[in-house]
Amino acid sequence: MSVPIRGLIFDMDGTIVDNMRYHDDAWEAWHAKYALPFDRPSFFGRTAGRTNPEIIGEMFPDLAPDEIVARGMEKEALYVELYRPHVRAVSGLVELMARAEAAAVPMAVGTAAPNDNIAVVLDTLALRERFRTIVSPSQGFRGKPHPDMFLAAAERMGVAPAECVVFEDAPLGVEAARRAGMRAVAMLTMLKAPDFAAFDNVIAAVPTFAELDGRFAFGAG
Question: Beta partners for 108?
């Protein structure tokens, strides 16, 4: 008998919304400002799910912490300007959330995004109040692939990690779910199914939530 699904945890960028290309556009402009090379094809896989201080701190190891934060804010300002007019939920998300709510299955968000970016997505889409909790590095958690945010989300929902399913678009996020002892659904907004083939915790790989209709039953074993 399969382990029941009693909690859902959603990454945000590239999962709730298909916005990672706007992040890449912002990162590319940011790299140009600082005369840094930018390898767009590999940047997503290496960084998606990590925090800005983690990413920028590796590029500028001698920079003061407050300057690292300031440079991260520069990148996020570029992203928000580019993406704000285009906020839209990935197809099938609202329907999946309604199914979970009907089955009394709690939901959470575990995202490396800063608070202002969380607001751009969740408040624009009026989704914030539908999640039991929202976990992010602003609360003191490490970025992915560390499992910290997903484990905190499960604890706050009162659900065992093995009974949670994580929705993620990035390998680092799927790895964080694996380290947390959670199953994952790979969202193919940026990558293809073979990019997640090495992960034994991936139970589905789909381009949108609509393809999950009827694929699993909440609370069922």
Answer: 9, 133
